[in-house]
Amino acid sequence: MFYRPEDGHGLPHNPFNAIVTPRPIGWISTRGADGHDNLAPYSFFNAVAYVPPQVMFASTGAKPDRSGTKDSVEQIRETGVFCVNVVEYAMKDAMNQTSGAWERDIDEFALAGIDKAECETIPCARVANAPASLECKLTQIVQLPGAANFVVFGEVTGVHMRDDCLKDGTFDVLSFSPLARMGYKDYTVVRDKFALARPGE
């Protein structure tokens, strides 16, 4: 099968996000200028540079109570900071609860019963018990073609790692079973790994 996106795919559901899979989930916490905390998951998320460490996430929708975007992007515009929290399998239901299009004054931490802690380098909350959290300062927001498509880039200014996830000096991802997004309503869990040496190593 071949299709041009501009012509449509003719399938019951859009296959695009099932093709680009699995995708790590950035559970983005933000704080607005008014002090209100927000927490929402984004599966268009990844690390993009080592030195300095940088990450990105993309927001592809809008809420009627925001100016053409979602709460996360709007609050980052206001304060210039955000935190990326890693999602473990055990927190899948709480993560899913925070994915709703809740009104802007709803604190998703409280809504989903998630313990919050203060970040160290930025004025923002984080998921207290997450396997890892990356405190970030905004570097740029890029508007992409299409309605409400924005990519947020940030430089990591602080890194939290849960003590039980550190094994023999490494951050052991299998110790907490990272959750990843597949297509449609599907998710997967990382429970296996293998190593490959690059040519010449």
TrEMBL record:
Domain Flavin reductase like, chain residue ranges per copy: 18-173
GO MF term (any one): FMN binding
UniProt xrefs under InterPro entries: Flavin_Rdtase-like_dom, Split_barrel_FMN-bd
Domain of life: Bacteria
PANTHER family per UniProt: BLR2425 PROTEIN (PTHR43812), FLAVIN REDUCTASE LIKE DOMAIN-CONTAINING PROTEIN (PTHR43812:SF2)
Protein name, per record: Flavin reductase family protein
